[in-house]
Amino acid sequence: MYQFTDMLFAKTNILMGQLKHEIGRAAGSRNLQARGIAQKRRGRRHTERVDRIHQAILEQGGAYDLGRDRRAHLIRFQ
């Protein structure tokens, strides 16, 4: 009787492990896909920002003070 219950628990644990593995893979691929979408959005925002900066430089006749970036570096185009 003990052998049967041990075998049953072993098989159950194997199946549960496989199920957890598949759930983890599905969730991981979904997270990777979401991260890729977020990366595309960030890239688009950066492109729009660069385009706005470039347009402002052209409107100012080539000299434009952008202030400070995230690291507090002074940014100037001349």
UniProtKB/TrEMBL annotation:
Domain of life assignment: Bacteria
Q: What is this protein called?
A: CsbD family protein
Q: Which organism is it from?
A: Gluconacetobacter entanii
